[in-house]
Amino acid sequence: MNKIKGPAKYDGKCVRVTDSQGNSFEAICEYLSRDYVEHEYGKNEDALELAHLFIVHSDIVNVEILDDHEGPWGRFSGPFGMLEEITVEDDIFMTLQMLEDYADEEEEHVQRLLACLEYYLSCGQGTKIPWEAEKSKLIDPLKRIADEVTDKETRESAKRLILLCSKNDE
Fold first, then answer.
1. Same domain, yes or no, for 86 and 136?
2. 58 plus 90 within the same structural domain
3. Do residues 158 and 145 lie in contact, with contact meaning Cβ atoms separated by under 8 Å?
4. Whole-angstrom Cα distance, residue 154 to residue 73?
5. pLDDT reported for residue 170
6. What pLDDT does 31 receive?
7. Same structural domain for residues 54 and 115?
8. Residue 19 β-bridge partners
9. Strands 24-32, 47-50: parallel, antiparallel or unpaired by DSSP?
């Protein structure tokens, strides 16, 4: 039984949402009204959107606000999480969309996505992504991030990824 009351209070907050399947996602959240969700997705309930993922109210088991948390990764529990892993493992289109959509407004999401991409593309972990042969498509959005984003660490990460995406697999 869902006991989350007033999901609108999480709008604009950095949160950790646990869904009914036990998955945990961390992101800056946007509240989606019942009317909006019904119109766009055909579900008659409100939802929380975390980057490009939306979770309807009935699938939310717990929401924790992370805005006051401070640690090595800011408000988040790690350099990247399940949301970024799903994005990278899904397909290159979703990865490109997140890089392009969030570069201007949600720098924290971009930092986490770049960390996840570095993890997968550095091959030290032996983990491959299904679209790795298309990784050169990331170069232009990464160049934009390296040139335009204000955070030095994010720019450096984008530059490292440009090198990784420029390498041909042997």
1. yes
2. no
3. yes
4. 13
5. 46
6. 92
7. no
8. 60
9. antiparallel
Task: Please choose, from the candidates 114, 167, 109, the residue with its C-alpha nearest in 3D space to the C-alpha of residue 141.
Answer: 114
Antiparallel, parallel or unpaired: β 14-19 and 24-32: antiparallel
Strand intervals (E) in the chain: 14-19, 24-32, 47-50, 53-56, 60-65
pLDDT at 138: 94
Walk along the chain (170 residues) in steps of 10 and give the mean pLDDT of each run.
68 93 93 92 92 90 88 88 90 87 75 91 72 90 90 92 79
Distance, in Å, from the CA atom of 37 to the CA atom of 10, rounded to the nearest integer, reads: 16
User: For the chain, how many structural domains are there in total?
Assistant: 2
Separation between Cα atoms, residue 2 and residue 60, nearest integer Å: 7
- The tokens describing 42, both together, are 């055909």
Residues 99 and 41 in one domain: no
User: Residue 98 falls within a domain, yes or no?
Assistant: yes
Q: What is the pLDDT of residue 1?
A: 40
> Which tokens is 141 given?
């959005």
2 occurs within a structural domain? no
User: How far is the C-alpha of 164 from the C-alpha of 158, rounded, in Å?
Assistant: 10
State the amino acid at position 84 in one-letter form: E
How big is the CA angle at 169 (ends 165 and 170), to the nearest 5 degrees? 155
CA end-to-end span of the chain: 52
Identify the domain containing residue 38 by its residue range: 7-65
